[in-house]
Automatic annotation (TrEMBL):
<keyword id="KW-0413">Isomerase</keyword>
<dbReference type="GO" id="GO:0004106">
    <property type="term" value="F:chorismate mutase activity"/>
</dbReference>
<dbReference type="InterPro" id="IPR036979">
    <property type="entry name" value="CM_dom_sf"/>
</dbReference>
<dbReference type="Pfam" id="PF00800">
    <property type="entry name" value="PDT"/>
</dbReference>
<comment type="function">
    <text>Catalyzes the Claisen rearrangement of chorismate to prephenate and the decarboxylation/dehydration of prephenate to phenylpyruvate.</text>
</comment>
<dbReference type="InterPro" id="IPR036263">
    <property type="entry name" value="Chorismate_II_sf"/>
</dbReference>
<keyword id="KW-0057">Aromatic amino acid biosynthesis</keyword>
<feature type="domain" description="Prephenate dehydratase">
    <location>
        <begin position="96"/>
        <end position="271"/>
    </location>
</feature>
<dbReference type="Pfam" id="PF01817">
    <property type="entry name" value="CM_2"/>
</dbReference>
<comment type="pathway">
    <text>Metabolic intermediate biosynthesis; prephenate biosynthesis; prephenate from chorismate: step 1/1.</text>
</comment>
<dbReference type="InterPro" id="IPR002701">
    <property type="entry name" value="CM_II_prokaryot"/>
</dbReference>
<keyword id="KW-0511">Multifunctional enzyme</keyword>
<dbReference type="InterPro" id="IPR018528">
    <property type="entry name" value="Preph_deHydtase_CS"/>
</dbReference>
<dbReference type="GO" id="GO:0004664">
    <property type="term" value="F:prephenate dehydratase activity"/>
</dbReference>
<feature type="site" description="Essential for prephenate dehydratase activity">
    <location>
        <position position="264"/>
    </location>
</feature>
<keyword id="KW-0584">Phenylalanine biosynthesis</keyword>
<keyword id="KW-0963">Cytoplasm</keyword>
Length: 368
């Protein structure tokens, strides 16, 4: 009979320590959940409805990254803490989050990255449906794509922000890796590739090289592409890895995007403004008078106040020909004195200014 070696004894000791630590972690998580229930009871007695606090969660995750000593990377530790917070928040107030469906889209992935998996993710067929559902109170929050690092802005989201009363209360930066999904085992048998128009554009070079002559069909989302292809032969979808699981579609090729740093930015929409987190972004909508030098006069106050303009986009206003709305993202919160001075200076020059929201900036912990 073989005698246990020193390594066997060490392995058993390590396993026992893991079991003991698991027991402690479980007890602490449940203790945290009990405190969360107490917080909910206090807020209910006060008549408060702010169960979900974006700035509070951003601060917690920032501290997680700051104090993380490894060996787990910051992203992995943040995901664990995010899920704990998500489960505890569900005990306080179960939340519904509207997103661009169907299941398996990148927008759904952004929902889970930002809120954790304890929320009820509600798929919608179009971006305007998400706005309408949150405005009506049928969903607590909505998540919509706003720009891609390769293909630029999602114009429909910007256009919806013009007339909506919703407030931007968060952002998610999600690395996008496209996969070719199909029941066909041979790429040569595929006659049609289905995906969102932006995804087809993001994979153009790969498709030209590996699938020349194959018909490319644009649909409303990559999740919809996977749903359609799931019941067809001779067709493939470009979609997220999650869509492969949802629709039981094998992956024929992975990471087929032309830019390996391809990233999509999503906005979280709600009905309540967000206090300062200490690391914020403010988005505004501005319409200016069509006079010489107006764009300079619009941007100059930010330079004078030392406020960084992270992004500026223009969209036709649809009021008259060659009339534009400008969407501006600036670092800082609207309650910060420098940002407030910039907004006041712009307001004195602009025909229209609308604060779309101040919200915690993405800190990169969403990365996969």
């Amino acid at each position: 009979m073989t005698q246990p070696s020193a390594d066997d004894d060490a392995l058993n000791d390590a396993r026992q320590r893991i079991d003991a630590l698991d027991q402690q972690i479980q007890a602490l998580v449940n203790e945290r959940a009990g405190v969360a229930v107490q917080v909910a009871e206090i807020k209910q007695r006060q008549g408060r409805t702010d169960f979900y606090r974006p700035e509070r969660e951003a601060q917690v995750l920032a501290r997680v990254a700051e104090r993380n000593a490894g060996p787990l990377p910051d992203q992995a530790m943040a995901r664990i803490v995010r899920e704990i917070m998500s489960a505890c928040l569900a005990l306080e107030q179960p939340m519904t989050v509207a997103y661009l469906g169907p299941e398996g889209t990148y927008t759904q992935a952004a929902v889970y990255k930002h809120f954790g998996h304890a929320v009820a993710a509600s798929p919608h067929a179009a971006i305007n449906d998400i706005f309408r559902d949150v405005e009506a109170g049928n969903a607590h929050f909505g998540v919509v794509p706003v720009e891609n690092s390769t293909e630029g802005v999602v114009s429909h989201t910007l256009d919806q922000l013009v007339g909506s009363a919703l407030i931007i209360c968060g952002e998610v930066a999600l690395p996008v890796h496209h996969h070719l999904l199909s029941h066909e085992r041979d790429i040569g048998r595929i006659k049609r590739v289905v995906a969102h128009a932006q995804s087809l554009a993001q994979c153009r070079n790969w498709l030209d090289s590996h699938m020349p002559g194959v018909v490319r069909e644009a649909v409303s989302s990559n999740g919809e592409a996977a749903r359609r292809v799931a019941g067809e032969n001779g067709a493939a979808a470009i979609a997220a890895r999650a869509a492969s699981d949802y629709y039981d579609l094998p992956i024929l090729a992975s990471n087929i995007e032309d830019d390996p740093n391809n990233t999509t930015r999503f906005l979280v929409l709600g009905r309540q403004s967000v206090p300062r987190s200490g690391r914020d972004m403010t988005s505004i909508l501005v319409s200016i008078h069509n006079r010489p030098g107006m764009l300079y006069r619009l941007l100059a106050p930010a330079a004078e106040a030392g406020v960084d303009l992270a992004r500026i986009e223009s969209r036709p206003s649809r009021r008259q020909a060659w009339d534009y709305n400008f969407f501006i993202d600036m670092e800082g919160h609207a309650d910060d004195p420098p940002v407030r001075r910039v907004i006041e200076a712009i307001q004195s020059e602009a025909a229209l200014i609308k604060i779309l929201g101040s919200y915690p900036r993405s800190i990169g912990l969403e990365a996969e």
